[in-house]
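Purpose: get a first structural picture of the assembly so the mutagenesis plan has something to point at.
Setup: two entries, given in the order below. No constraints added.
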Amino acid sequence: MSTEVSKEHIAESYRKIQSDICSAIESADGTGLFKSDHWNRDEGGGGHTRILEGGSVLEKAGVNFSEVHGPFSDVMKQSMQTKADAFFATGVSIVMHPNNPHIPIIHMNIRYFEMNDGTYWFGGGIDLTPHYVQREQASYFHKELKDVCDKYDSAYYSRFKEWADDYFFIPHRNETRGVGGIFYDHLSEDEEHSKSSIFNFSEDLGKLFPKIYTHLINENRGREYSEEEKEWQMVRRGRYVEFNLVYDRGTKFGLQSNGRTESILMSLPRQAMWFYNLEPKENSPEAETIALLKKGVDWLS
Amino acid sequence: MSTEVSKEHIAESYRKIQSDICSAIESADGTGLFKSDHWNRDEGGGGHTRILEGGSVLEKAGVNFSEVHGPFSDVMKQSMQTKADAFFATGVSIVMHPNNPHIPIIHMNIRYFEMNDGTYWFGGGIDLTPHYVQREQASYFHKELKDVCDKYDSAYYSRFKEWADDYFFIPHRNETRGVGGIFYDHLSEDEEHSKSSIFNFSEDLGKLFPKIYTHLINENRGREYSEEEKEWQMVRRGRYVEFNLVYDRGTKFGLQSNGRTESILMSLPRQAMWFYNLEPKENSPEAETIALLKKGVDWLS
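Result (C-alpha cells, whole complex):
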C-alpha cells in the first residue's frame, strides 16, 4: 500500500487534477484559455501556475499546482514544533472569480505535507462564495460535498462543514465568507482511515470540483444583471480580499515564507470595491444574502 | 507645563486639527463635503469619523478622530508588557484617494497614548503614495516635512525618514508603498525634548497636512489622464490594500481589538485592481515609478 501513496504518487495525481480541472473549466468558459507559468523555488521544488483572465464566464481564475521541498527554516521548525529538518509539500489551489454576479466565487485546495521524521498529513477544503446566496444552489453544493464525504466516513461531512464555518469567517465583519463548504487539516491514518483512503478522499474532491462549478456556471450564466448587481459583486469581492489578506493561513504563510507572490495572490479578484458603511436596503436581495452569511446554517434541509 | 499637555488638552487639539483639515480639504476639493459619524466604544470613549466620497478631486477621503480609554484587556496588557491596568489613547488618522491618477494618495496619523502608571508616548507619520512618482513633488513633500522636523530636532528628519522607509514597505512586493515621508513612535520626554515640544511637533504636522496636500492637488488637478493611467492607479491602489491589510499595525490592532471596522477600513480605496503578473513596459512612466519605490532614496538632493 505504501508505495501507492508515496509523495511522488500524490504529487503526480494532484498535477493531473490541476490539468483536468483546467480543461473542464476552459470547456465551461467557452473562450477563455489558461496561461501557464512554471516556476522554481530556490530552496527546492517549484510549481505550475495556470491563470485564465478575461474569459466569457470567468474574469479571473487561478489553478495553482506546487511541489516544494527542502530544509526547514528555523522559523518553520519552531512554528511546527518539530525536530525534523526537511519537508515535502504538494497541493492544488484554486480560486475563480466570474464576470456574472449571479455565478458564485469558488475556492478549492487539496494539499499533502510530510516531514523527514515520517510524519505527514493531508489538508484541504472547498468553499463557495455567492455574491447573491441562492438556497437551492447552496444545497446542491453541500449535498455534493456530503456525498463524497460519506464515501469515506459518515462523520466527515458534519465535522468538516463546521470546520469550514469556523475557518471561512471574517471576525471584523461578523460574516462568513460565503455559504461555507468543507475544510479539513492534519488528517493522517488512524484505526479507521488508511493513508490511501485519505488520499483518495482528496482526489475525489479534486474530481468533484469541475462537476460542481460547471453546474453552477450553467445554472447562472444566462441570468441578466444590472449595474447595481455588478457593484454589489465588487463589494463582496472586497470582503474576499479582506479574508484572504487578513486571515487566510495559506496566504499569510506563503507571503511570510517568501513564496511566489503572484501565485499566492492569484486569489485576489481583478477588481474590488469598498464604500464607507454600505448598508443594503431592508428586504433587498443584498440584505437577504448578508442575513445568510453566518455559521451553523443547515444547507441540506 | 504639565497642565498644558494633559490628555484632555491633547485630545482637544487633535479634534480641532481634524476639523481644520476637513475644512481645508473641502475647499481644495470644491464640491465634496465630509459626512460625520460619531461612535461610542463600549469599554470607554469613542470617535468621530468623517468621510468624503465622490468629490471633484477626491474619490474617497477619511479623517478619523478618536479618544478612547478604559481598562486593558489581558491580551493588551500582555502585548504591552505592563502592570498598568488602564489606558487613554487619542489620535487623528487620514487617508485620501483622489480621482486623478496624477494626484498622489496621502496618509497622516498623529496619536498620543498614556497608561495609568504615568507612562505615555506620541507616535505618528505622514507618507505619500504617488501612482506616478514625480521627483520634484516628492522633493517638495520631503522638504516641507524636514522643515517641521528641524524646528524641533535637527536629527528628527533623517531618523524619521528612515523609519518611514522601513515601515511603509511591502516585503512580498519588495517595494516601498510610495515615496515615504516620516514615521515616529514611542516618543516621550528626555533630556533634549519636553513633553510639550513633542506634542507641538505632532500639532505642527497636523497643521502642515492641508498645506501640503492642497499644494499637491493644485499642482496636478488639471492634468489629463488616459484609461491606461486610470487602470495603473487601480493597480497601485491594490498594493495600498495589500500593505494596509497585511502589514499596517494600526489596521491589524484595530481589527483584532474589536475596533470600529468601518472607521479602520476607511483607508481602503473605493476601487482597486489586481492583474496576474503585470509587468510595466520598459522605460514607461509606470516602470520608472516602480524603480523609485525603494528604501533609501534621498528625495532632497
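The two ends of chain B are 39 Å apart (CA to CA).
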